[in-house]
Specification:
The protein is α/β, with parallel strands linked by helices. The protein is built from 16 helices and 13 strands. It comes from Urochloa decumbens.
């Protein structure tokens, strides 16, 4: 009887927590894509909510530019990879809301985050084709909360690294089930059984119906784009052929299910075997010969890929060269400008710097270095956007609200604790927002953040 009573208490507590989040903290009456009026009770779906979400506009690509509501779209963005994970438990959900509020105050309009967690704590996919509904509901909440703050999402679908499972977990699953061809992590890209595992996950995610809005993810414009994998590498095939075939196959599969959303690969931007010599020379330091199996231009040219992505970490990439601050800054400018040039002249697609950061642990680090480096990146992107070029956006890695020290890395920024960087990020948001000529909600929201002050 004591155990049964405890179950009753826990059940009531869980319901209260769920109602608090869905009806209190995530106020469904004020979603911003566009504003919705949601008469809900618990998890009951509103047909008005579904209709309003479907009526909102999707971000689209026209040549080398992003468009929204018929006007060029210049997002300023950031990374908070942990959103789904932190939305699972009631004790940590407030972090999601606080991050979106802080971002909206800075005029940030797109967040890149993980839509995967394979076999780890709070796993979305607990085993091949088996999903935890509790975690899926957390991702549902992230979509709603993003929409409420006028933020769109780039959702990454897998990890090359082991964090949150990654391709290592898929290989382990296949090996444990006795169907794996190899114990190599790169078998993720060529093992038929693993490719089938991944396709099951893709279909399940893309067709997921949000329990709060009743809208399938593939129909939700809150999502700006899908990213096939965070920093894909296939070191066992430096020719790039294995990774290229995987990208082509998975991009086509995603588009066969979801033709509304943009799609990117998630590459870091390393030039590969098919690139001309002058482009190979842009690769950082000892990485010039790029044996990671990626090939930026070749990968991005795939027809089903809508925009190219690059990352930028001068501290790590130039570590063995013992580069000075000025040498790192020179590299940063060349890296970003070179890839935007590719978007303009070679790809005819937008180029987004979806991760960039400067480590506070680098030798000789000074907080002012971040301001200088980040401003250099922002300036190149802005100049491209101002002339209608392929440079679409730059996403700082990573932002977090106060009290998330356990998620910090060498690059983490709490905006409220770094006033000069806060001003720099907001300034970029404002000047990009002013490039939009339309009168839509996105433009008004961006300009409203600017009008609220510069700090």
């Amino acid at each position: 009887m004591g155990g049964l009573a405890l179950y009753h208490v826990l059940g009531v507590a869980s319901c209260v927590a769920l109602l608090y989040f869905t009806l209190g903290e995530v106020d469904l009456r004020h979603i911003s894509l566009p504003s919705l009026s949601l008469p809900v009770s618990g998890d009951l779906v509103s047909s008005r909510a579904a209709a309003a979400v479907r009526a909102a506009s999707f971000v689209e690509r026209r040549g080398h530019q992003l468009f929204l509501d018929g006007e060029p779209f210049y997002p300023n963005g950031w990374n908070s990879y942990w959103l789904m994970d932190q939305a699972v438990e009631s004790r940590s959900r407030d972090r999601v809301s606080r991050m979106f509020r802080a971002a909206a105050e800075m005029g940030l309009t797109v967040c890149r985050s993980w839509a995967f967690n394979d076999g780890a704590y709070n796993a979305l996919q607990v085993s091949p084709g088996h999903f935890d509904e509790r975690v899926f509901k957390a991702l549902d909440r992230v979509l709603v909360e993003a929409g409420r703050h006028g933020v769109r999402l780039i959702l990454s679908l897998a990890n090359n690294l082991e964090a949150y499972g990654g391709k290592t977990q898929y290989v382990r699953w296949a090996w444990e089930e006795g169907v794996g061809l190899s114990a190599s992590n790169d078998s993720f890209f060529f093992d038929p059984a693993i490719r089938d595992y991944f396709k099951v996950y893709l279909k399940t995610l893309l067709t997921r119906k949000n329990h709060l809005t009743g809208v399938e993810y593939r129909d939700d414009p809150t999502i700006m784009a899908w990213e096939l994998m965070n920093e894909p590498r296939c070191t066992t095939d430096p020719s790039g052929d294995t990774l290229q075939r995987w990208i082509e196959e998975m991009a086509a599969y995603v588009k066969s299910i979801d033709k509304k959303h943009l799609l990117t690969v998630g590459t870091e931007g390393f030039y590969g075997p098919t690139s001309p010599q002058h482009k190979l020379e842009v690769n950082p330091g000892t990485w010039k010969d790029n044996n990671y199996g990626s090939d930026f231009i070749r990968n991005a040219k795939i027809p089903d890929i809508d925009f190219a992505s690059i990352h930028l970490y001068p501290d790590t990439w130039l570590l063995k060269q013992h580069a000075t601050v000025n040498e790192k800054l020179k590299f940063v400018k060349q890296w970003v400008a070179s890839h935007i040039e590719d978007g303009d002249k070679e790809l005819n697609k937008p180029v987004l710097c979806t991760e960039f950061g400067l480590s506070h642990r680098a030798k000789g680090y000074n907080p002012a270095h971040r301001d200088v480096f980040y401003k250099a990146i922002y300036d190149i992107v802005y100049r491209s956007a101002a002339r209608g070029g392929a440079g679409a956006a730059a996403f700082v890695w990573q932002l977090a609200p106060e009290g998330m020290e356990e998620f910090h890395d060498d690059y983490s920024v709490v905006p409220s604790e770094h006033p000069s960087l806060h001003r720099l990020i907001k300034k970029q948001s404002c000047r990009l927002a002013k490039l939009r000529r339309g009168e839509g909600e996105e433009t008004k929201r961006g300009l409203s953040a600017c009008a609220a002050g510069s700090s």
